[in-house]
Write a structure and sequence with these properties.
Layout (H helix, E strand, L loop, with lengths): L3 H11 L4 E5 L2 E5 L10 E2 L7 H17 L6 E4 L13 E11 L12 H8 L6 H13 L4 E8 L2 E11 L2 E9 L8 H14 L4 E7 L3 H9 L3 E10 L2
Parallel strand pairs: 3-4, 8-9
Antiparallel strand pairs: 1-2, 2-3, 4-10, 5-9, 5-10, 6-7, 7-8
Length: about 240
């Protein structure tokens, strides 16, 4: 049985940060910029008493501030024990982690990371965030695949899957606005689940709780909520 901690480890390996620092059983991810998933501490379910927690949080804050970054924790349903120690900390980015069994399907057309980034660049809402995400994608050494949807010779959608820690994560499911609601995202999800099926791996994805249309789509494709996470930082 795959537990939530294994999914957390797989997810952090799938989106590599510039550097990582072990702080006891916690792992701090440090990167230039502000993307939360590569600039946060994963607690990995390690529980501490109140004095140990206070000392550990002080170490986290010093580490991030020494690097000119905002201290931030990624807390999940495994980490409720820490709540009394971070009362008053701000929170942002609550998301669902959803899982589904893989299912056989033809993977279809694929592209390289550089081809995907060239397609994605003009579609980025925040150029600075795009560069951060692109750097992380280029650092990835794990097995992965990027599938596309096309109209004629033009790419109108792309999505990728990454295999880490014996699990397949789906990321960056993107369809051009004028081609949405025509089944392209659904097609790519099924094809990526087909890729996972060749590896006999459980499939997971992460989605903001406010993204109700995406959640509804994922539910129709067999995904169910596994747990939630939030980012927490000193007020």
């Amino acid at each position: 049985m795959i537990d939530d901690a294994a999914i957390e480890i797989a997810a952090e390996q799938a989106v590599p940060s510039e550097s990582q620092v072990a702080i006891g059983g916690w792992r701090a991810h440090l990167s230039s910029g502000h993307i939360r998933r590569i600039n946060a501490v994963n607690l990995h379910g390690e529980q501490l008493d109140r004095p140990e927690t206070a000392e550990r949080l002080s170490t986290v804050q010093d580490l991030y501030r020494d690097h000119g970054l905002q201290p931030r924790l990624r807390t999940t349903s495994m980490d409720t024990w820490i709540e009394p120690s971070i009362t008053g900390w701000s929170e942002a980015g609550e998301a669902l982690v959803m899982t589904s069994e893989a299912q056989s399907a033809d993977v279809g057309p694929t592209i390289t990371v550089e081809e995907w980034l060239a397609w994605l660049r003009p579609r980025a809402m925040l150029p600075g965030r795009f560069e951060e995400a692109a750097s992380s994608a280029r650092r990835l050494t794990a097995d992965h695949v990027i599938v596309t949807e096309g109209r004629g010779a033009a790419i109108i959608g792309a999505a990728r899957a990454v295999s880490t820690h014996g699990l397949t994560g789906l990321f960056d499911i993107t369809v051009d606005p004028e081609h949405r609601r025509h089944g392209h995202a659904r097609s790519m999800i099924r094809r990526l689940k087909g890729w996972a099926a060749t590896r006999d791996e459980l499939v997971y994805l992460q989605v903001a709780v406010v993204n109700l249309p995406a959640i509804a789509l994922y539910q129709t494709e067999g995904f169910t909520e596994r747990y939630r996470y939030r980012y927490r930082g000193p007020a």
